[in-house]
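Support reply, case 0932

Customer input (verbatim):
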Amino acid sequence: MTPETAPATNATARPYPRRRSWRLVAGACALLALVATALLAPVLAPYDPLRQDLAHHLEPPSRLHPLGTDRLGRDVLSRLLFGARLSLVVGAAAVTGALALGLLLGTVAGYGGRTSDELVMRVTDVLLAFPGILLAIALAAVLGPSARNVVIALTVMGWPAYARLTRAEVRAAATRESTRAAEALGATPLRVALRHLLPSARPALVVQATFGVAGAIVAEASLSFLGLGPPPPTPSWGAMLAEGRSFLLVAPHLVIAPAAALGVTVLAIQLLGDALRAGRSSAA
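Our regenerated output:
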């Protein structure tokens, strides 16, 4: 390699890590800011999100109400901040439940023998045959509108993807020499799973869970938009969008504010997920 060609080669090798680092920093900072905003909602909100003031309903953004008021005179900014808390909690809880259930069943399918593999995978195939959001809508409609039932519906909707991913990673790890050696030394199946199988699945599951949080937040907003989320007057971005569409021409801020908040949140999580996925791919 000549000195003239060496700098060009190095220059083409650096942009990928730099782009990954930019996505990781931007996504992590934006997500941390959103989480901090949600946690500090009682302090940051200028008004009680449930307080009605009919004399000042449908007001445009102003100094007193930076994002305006809704049809009942409630401050949109305050409701937006408390809605962030609901969206992040529901998204995190749904992904945690789906990940735990998928991790358990995926490990059983990948390491528990042919019978358990067939049973778990057939149930997974049946659930994956339905569009996820339709399954969540059906479950939420049957269970009734509440934040807890939304989490249950999203957990049922999400666990098959984690189960299939866990099964694939566990089956690959089960053929490694370290796993075979542990089995030959008499390690119990539980110890083999905890020490040799699940650690190898962790990077892929972290990436999947990151994208899953964004999907769960959008799904919660969709259910709330349809009236299947937490009942009024609980602040929810989806419910705010549903209410604001009736006043789109006279008060567009009622739609713009929750739509922008939802878009920024999903974008931040997607940036973080892309960076984690790129890091896993480069490490592999």
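We compared this against your earlier run and they match. Two observations from our side: Residues 189-225 form the longest helix (37 residues). The two ends are 27 Å apart (CA to CA). Please reopen the case if you see a mismatch on your end.
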